[in-house]
Design goal:
With about 230 residues, the protein is of the alpha+beta class. Helix content is about 35%, strand content about 10%. Among the domains are: about 20-110 and about 120-155, no CATH class; about 195-225, no CATH class. The chain has helices spanning about 30-40, 70-75, 95-105, 155-185, 195-205, 215-230; strands at about 20, 25-30, 50, 60-65, 70, 85, 115-120, 125, 205, 210. Strands 2-1-3 form a 3-stranded antiparallel sheet. Strands 5-4-6 form a 3-stranded antiparallel sheet.
Length: about 230
């Protein structure tokens, strides 16, 4: 299966990235994820998570009913309107069977004593990753804390398209604000760019508002002088 643009593994560049490693700052395919964290010994102790299917640049926090995974910023506008489950954060080097369970199986519900962290302003609350510790050869998972599941359901494709449309609309609004700010600082004063050209244009002879050619101006001057001589 061909990789989508912007979804390829940032280590090998040949396979599609499926997990996000915050310590290494990028998306990884399963082969590179295992090889990288096995080669560096204790490097596998830091947590990793499935990749967000919308932005492909962050760790996913929610999994919709049809399998799509979304990070907090991408999922938050719709987190209270669509059914979802919680993604796993894992450490170490899980076996292929464990990775399949971590990436595709629905995790259990969150514990009763879950914590919420406030992000941004007002009453906006988004889930935080619970701490996960394990040895390099074992995998542990922690479900994320989120509000109670909502009631409605929509397809993943329409949800992702709606999120991208919101991002585009916000970008257009920012562009309009920048344009309006530039309009306020514009100056429409009359300025002369080349003063010497203006002086030469003012000195040239005009016929009915247009510049007269040098030949016509010289002939007109000679004819006027001959007429004066004839009168004399």
């Amino acid at each position: 299966m061909e990789n989508e643009v912007g979804c390829e593994c940032q280590l090998c560049g040949g396979r599609r990235g499926v997990v996000f490693c915050g310590a290494h700052g990028g998306r990884l395919c399963l082969q590179c994820d295992r090889a990288l964290h096995q080669a560096h010994g204790g490097a596998g102790d830091h947590p990793r998570a499935p990749l967000c299917d919308s932005c492909n640049a962050a760790a996913a926090e929610l999994r919709l009913n049809d399998g799509a995974t979304l990070c907090g910023p991408c999922a938050y506008p719709y987190a209270y309107a669509y059914p979802y489950t919680y993604t796993y954060v894992y450490t170490g080097c899980p076996t292929p069977l464990e990775m399949m369970r971590l990436l595709h199986a629905a995790p259990p519900p969150p514990p009763a004593t879950c914590s919420l962290q406030q992000r941004g302003e007002g009453e906006e609350l988004l889930p935080t990753l619970l701490s996960a510790t394990a040895t390099p050869n074992t995998a542990t998972a922690a479900p994320m804390a989120m509000p109670p599941p909502p009631l409605q359901h929509h397809t993943t494709t329409s949800l992702i398209m709606m999120i991208r449309n919101i991002h585009k609309r916000e970008e257009r609004n920012r562009a309009k604000l920048r344009y309006n700010d530039k309009k306020k600082t514009r100056k429409f004063s009359k300025q002369i760019k080349y003063a010497c050209r203006k002086a030469g244009a003012d000195a040239r002879k005009r016929v009915k508002g247009r510049f007269a050619k040098a030949s016509s101006s010289s002939s007109s001057s000679s004819s006027s002088s001959s007429s004066i001589d004839h009168r004399l």
